[in-house]
C-alpha cells in the first residue's frame, strides 16, 4: 500500500486536532477519575494517589448523587417527549399550507434557541414569580392559587422543564420542518384520493416518513437533556432542597466547589456510560420497529 | 363506468395567472381520451381538477350524472396514476395496493382477493412483499397502475405515467395501458406532452395550449385536419412545414410565396371562401412526408413544384429527414433512405395538391378550402 503514507498525511491535521482536544482530555479525565485528585493534589502533585474504582464505588453510595440522577432522569423522561411534541407540533403548523406568515413564525419560534440563556432566565424568573409573575396571573384567572414555582421543591423541576423546552424546541422544529418539506406532496395527494383523513395522513404518511428524523432528533435531544446544567445553575442553583440538582450540576459542585476533581471526573464518566446505554437502547428499539 | 363532463371550467391562480380557460368537453363512458399539449398548457391542472385535487375557479365538473365540484377526491370514484407514481415508500407493494381498501373499511378477505386479482393482471404477484425502492422503474409504474386498478374506479386518471421510463420500457407499458383499457372497458383520461402517446393511445385527443383547448377529435382527424397553426405545428414529428405567402388573382388564384408562386387551382385548392381571401396573407402548411423529391422536369407536370437546396441529411434507418431551403424558408422532408442526393444539391420538391393546409396568419385558424 503505497497510498498509506499520503493518506495519513492528509488525515493528520484532523487527527491531531481530535487527539489534542478530544482523546487526550477524555483519557486524562478517565485517569483523573481513578485518583483522589483534589485541592491538596493541586497544591502539590505528590499528594495524588491512585485509588482505583474507589471514586465510583463511593459515588454509588452517595444519596446526593442518586438524588441528582433521579432529578436528571425525571427531566429527561418528561422533558424530551414534551420537547419533541412541541417541536413536531409547531413544525406541522408552520409547514401547513394554511399557515399565515409562516416565515415570521418560523423565525419567532426559533428565536429562543439563539437567545442568551442567562438573559432569558432573568425574564423567566419574572414570569414565574409567585406574586407578580404572568404565569400565576394567568392561573389566577382560572381560579388556581399562586404557585411558588422556583421555591417549591415539587414545582421547581417542572418549571425548569418548561423553561428548557421553551428554550430548545425551536432547534428540533427546524429539523422537523426540513424533513416535512422533503416529503413529496404527491404522497399526500395519493393518500387523499385513497380516502385518508387528515389524521390518517399524519399517522400513515407523515409519521412513517419522519421516522429517521425522529430517531436522530430523539437521540440528540436525550443526550442533550441528560447534560442539564445551565438552567438550574442560573434559575435555582440546585435548590430548593436539592430538587433541581442535575448530574452535571452535582459534578460541577463536586469539582469546582469542593475541588474533588477525581470524584467529579468519575461523575462525568458515569453520565457518559448512562447516555451511551440509553442511546444504544434507542437505536435497538428503532431497529426492532423497522424490522417489524 | 361513467362519463366525465367539463363545462366552462376555468382555473385562475392568485387572481392573475390563468391556467385553464373555459374548458368544455365530454369524455364518453369507457372512452380513452388524451389531453396533450406542451408543458404549462394546463393539461395537468385539468386532470387535477377532475380528480378534485384542485377546485375550478368557475365551471362545473360532472362524473356520471353527478356534479362533483364539491365532492371530496376520495368520494369521486376515480383513481389517479401520478407522474412520480407517488408510491408510499414505507409500505410494501401489497400494502400500497391495499391502502385505499383498508381506509374504506373493506373486509380482509375482500382486500386480499382484490389485491391478488390486480397483482395478477399486472404481473406483480412475485413482488407483493417488496418495497418500492427495491423495484425497477417499470415495476414501480405497474404498482402505480395496480393501486388504481385495485379500487375498480369509474374513471382512471393518468398524469404522464410514462415520462419517467426509458424509451424502450415506455413502448412496452404504452401497449400494456392500451390493452388494460380494452380489457377493463373503463373511462380513462390520460395526460401527456408526448404526441406519439397521444396519437397511439387516444380514441380522441384534446390538444391544449396556453390553457385553451385547441382541438378535440380522433387522432388521425387531428393529424389530417389540424384546426389551427398550433395544432398543425404541435402534432406530427418532424413538425409541419410552414410557408408564408399571399393569395393573388392573376390568371387564376395563386399563392405568392415570394420566391415562387403556386397555382392554387393546380393544387386542387378551390372553393368559395378562398376567392373572398384574394389579397390576404396566408400560411401554407405541408407535412414532411407529403413533400417529395421530384425529378427535374419529370412526369408529374400537374403537381406544384418548389426549387430548393438540400442542406442536411439525417438518416434514422427506416427513413431519412432532409433539411432543404427554398427561398428563405426551411423545409423538412421525410423520405425513404435510399438513393438520396448529397447536401448542397439543388433539388425540386413536389407535393400532392390535396395535402396543402392553409391557415390565417392573424387568427391561426385553418381555412377550410379542400
Q: How many angstroms does the end-to-end distance of chain B come to?
A: 40 Å
Shape of chain A: globular
The proportion of strand residues of chain A reads: under 5%
Count of helical stretches of chain A: 13
Give the mean pLDDT of chain A.
91
Per-chain topology:
The complex is a heterodimer of chains A (292) and B (370).
Chain A: H1 3-33, H2 39-43, H3 54-59, H4 63-95, H5 102-114, H6 117-127, H7 134-141, H8 156-181, H9 185-194, H10 198-226, H11 230-235, H12 247-257, H13 261-291
Helix pairs in contact in A: 1-13, 4-5, 4-8, 4-10, 4-12, 5-8, 8-10, 10-13, 12-13
Chain B: E1 4-13, E2 17-27, E3 32-36, H1 43-51, E4 58-63, E5 66-67, E6 78-81, H2 93-103, H3 108-122, H4 137-149, E7 155-159, H5 167-184, E8 187-192, H6 195-201, E9 204-209, E10 212-217, H7 219-224, H8 229-234, E11 241-249, E12 253-256, E13 261-263, H9 264-267, H10 272-275, E14 281-286, E15 291-294, E16 305-315, E17 320-326, E18 329-335, E19 346-351, E20 357-359
Parallel strand pairs in B: 3-8, 3-9, 6-7, 7-8
Antiparallel strand pairs in B: 1-2, 1-4, 4-5, 9-10, 11-12, 11-14, 12-13, 14-20, 15-19, 16-17, 16-19, 17-18
List keywords for this structure.
heterodimer, A: 292 residues, mainly alpha, MetI-like fold, globular, B: 370 residues, alpha+beta, OB fold (Dihydrolipoamide Acetyltransferase, E2P), five-stranded antiparallel beta sheet, elongated
Amino acid at each position: 500500500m503505497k497510498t498509506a503514507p499520503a493518506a495519513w498525511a492528509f488525515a493528520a491535521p484532523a487527527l491531531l486536532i481530535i487527539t489534542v482536544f478530544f482523546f487526550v482530555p477524555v483519557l486524562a479525565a478517565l485517569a483523573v477519575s481513578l485518583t483522589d485528585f483534589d485541592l491538596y493534589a493541586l497544591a502539590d502533585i505528590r499528594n495524588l494517589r491512585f485509588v482505583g474504582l474507589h471514586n465510583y464505588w463511593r459515588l454509588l453510595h452517595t444519596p446526593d448523587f442518586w438524588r441528582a440522577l433521579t432529578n436528571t432522569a425525571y427531566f429527561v423522561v418528561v422533558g424530551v417527549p414534551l420537547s419533541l411534541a412541541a417541536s413536531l407540533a409547531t413544525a406541522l403548523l408552520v409547514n401547513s399550507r394554511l399557515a399565515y406568515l409562516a416565515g415570521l413564525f418560523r423565525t419567532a419560534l426559533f428565536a429562543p434557541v439563539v437567545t442568551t440563556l442567562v438573559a432569558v432566565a432573568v425574564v423567566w424568573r419574572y414570569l414565574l414569580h409567585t406574586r407578580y409573575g404572568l404565569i400565576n396571573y394567568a392561573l389566577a384567572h382560572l381560579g388556581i392559587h399562586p404557585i411558588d414555582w422556583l421555591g417549591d421543591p415539587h414545582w421547581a423541576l417542572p418549571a425548569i422543564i418548561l423553561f428548557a423546552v421553551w428554550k430548545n424546541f425551536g432547534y428540533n422544529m427546524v429539523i422537523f420542518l426540513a424533513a416535512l418539506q422533503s416529503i413529496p406532496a404527491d404522497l399526500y395527494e395519493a393518500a387523499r384520493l385513497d380516502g385518508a383523513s387528515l389524521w390518517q395522513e399524519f399517522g400513515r404518511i407523515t409519521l412513517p416518513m419522519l421516522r429517521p428524523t425522529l430517531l436522530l432528533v430523539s437521540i440528540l435531544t436525550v443526550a442533550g437533556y441528560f447534560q442539564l446544567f445551565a438552567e438550574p445553575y442560573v434559575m435555582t442553583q440546585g435548590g430548593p432542597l436539592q430538587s433541581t440538582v442535575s448530574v452535571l450540576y452535582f459534578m460541577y459542585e463536586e469539582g469546582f466547589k469542593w475541588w474533588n476533581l477525581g470524584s467529579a471526573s468519575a461523575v462525568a464518566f458515569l453520565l457518559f456510560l448512562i447516555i451511551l446505554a440509553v442511546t444504544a437502547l434507542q437505536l435497538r428499539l428503532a431497529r426492532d420497529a423497522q424490522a417489524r | 363506468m361513467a362519463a366525465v363532463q367539463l363545462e366552462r371550467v376555468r382555473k385562475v391562480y392568485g387572481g392573475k395567472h390563468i391556467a385553464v380557460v373555459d374548458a368544455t368537453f365530454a369524455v364518453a363512458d369507457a372512452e380513452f381520451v388524451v389531453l396533450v399539449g406542451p408543458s404549462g398548457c394546463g393539461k395537468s391542472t385539468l386532470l387535477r381538477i377532475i380528480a378534485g385535487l384542485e377546485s375550478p375557479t368557475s365551471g362545473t365538473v360532472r362524473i356520471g350524472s353527478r356534479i362533483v365540484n364539491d365532492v371530496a377526491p376520495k368520494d369521486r370514484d376515480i383513481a389517479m396514476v401520478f407522474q412520480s407514481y407517488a408510491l408510499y415508500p414505507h409500505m410494501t407493494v401489497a400494502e400500497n395496493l391495499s391502502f385505499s381498501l383498508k381506509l374504506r373499511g373493506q373486509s380482509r378477505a375482500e382486500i386480499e382477493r382484490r389485491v391478488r386479482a390486480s397483482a395478477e393482471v399486472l404481473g406483480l404477484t412475485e413482488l407483493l412483499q417488496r418495497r418500492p425502492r427495491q423495484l425497477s422503474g417499470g415495476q414501480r409504474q405497474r404498482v402505480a397502475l395496480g393501486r388504481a386498478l385495485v379500487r375498480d374506479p369509474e374513471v382512471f386518471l393518468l398524469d404522464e405515467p410514462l415520462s419517467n421510463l426509458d424509451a424502450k420500457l415506455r413502448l412496452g407499458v404504452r401497449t400494456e395501458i392500451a390493452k388494460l383499457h380494452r380489457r377493463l372497458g373503463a373511462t380513462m383520461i390520460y395526460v401527456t406532452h408526448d404526441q406519439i402517446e397521444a396519437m397511439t393511445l387516444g380514441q380522441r385527443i384534446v390538444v391544449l395550449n396556453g390553457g385553451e383547448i385547441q382541438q378535440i377529435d380522433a387522432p388521425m382527424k387531428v393529424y389530417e385536419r389540424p384546426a389551427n397553426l398550433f395544432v398543425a405545428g404541435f402534432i406530427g414529428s418532424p413538425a409541419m412545414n410552414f410557408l408564408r405567402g399571399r393569395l393573388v388573382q392573376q390568371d387564376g388564384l395563386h399563392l405568392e410565396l415570394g420566391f415562387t408562386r403556386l397555382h392554387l387551382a393546380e393544387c386542387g385548392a378551390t372553393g368559395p371562401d378562398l376567392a373572398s381571401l384574394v389579397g390576404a396573407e396566408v400560411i401554407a402548411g405541408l407535412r414532411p412526408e407529403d413533400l417529395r423529391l421530384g425529378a427535374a422536369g419529370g412526369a408529374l407536370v400537374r403537381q406544384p413544384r418548389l426549387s430548393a437546396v438540400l442542406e442536411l441529411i439525417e438518416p434514422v434507418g427506416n427513413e431519412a429527414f432532409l433539411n432543404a431551403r427554398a427561398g428563405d424558408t426551411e423545409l423538412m422532408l421525410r423520405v425513404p433512405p435510399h438513393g438520396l442526393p448529397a447536401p448542397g444539391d439543388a433539388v425540386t420538391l413536389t407535393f400532392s395538391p390535396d395535402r396543402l393546409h392553409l391557415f390565417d396568419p392573424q387568427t391561426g385558424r385553418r381555412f377550410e378550402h379542400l
